[in-house]
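[Meeting: bench + compute handoff]

Bench side (C.D.) handed over the final construct sequence. Compute side (W.E.) agreed to return the predicted structure before the next meeting so the bench team could plan truncations. Sequence as handed over:
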Amino acid sequence: MSKIVLYWHPMSSATPVACALAELGVPHERVKVDITTGEQRRPDFLALNPNGKVPTLTVDGAPMFEALAIELWLGHTFGVKSGLWPAGGTREHLQAMSWCTWSYVTYGAQLVRLQAARDLGTPDDAHGRAAHKGLDELLALLDARLAAQPWMLGADYSLVDLCVGSVIGYSAYIGAPVASHPHVQAWLQKVQARPAMQIEA
């Protein structure tokens, strides 16, 4: 098996990757990068990830970065065999790719706006309200999907739930109206209750 190393920091964007590795039972090494002291800007780390951020993953020394890319790679590489990721060429695989990207890109764009308003201390100004409204509309789409089925891809839990749930969970933490969407709220509680989501990462 390939040697996999996760460069991470607690309570960061690396957490969903650490949880996915745990969910899949993939043997790996963890290297903590202290982003509070600037370790992510050291030349040796920048050689792996020029963005100077976590998560970064190396596979037999070859680096990759961006949480979404890493999660999709883990799904393709380890999830199909374990039943946690749909096989390529299936309808479910198309949905998996779509919803994971939706969470990080479409939903994430509104989340960045809300985070910026929160950081500026202006969550109730026009920009903050617009971000809140955008998130609410997107959560309504997700709520409709989860009203029709218990998990993102249907009857069974998958890494798609972990991926999407990680983004939705963070958004709830910073003030997105997740609690206003009962099916999303109930699903998120199930996702967050899984043992793999309890790891210290």
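W.E. noted at the follow-up: Residues 91-119 form the longest helix (29 residues). C.D. will use this when planning the next construct.
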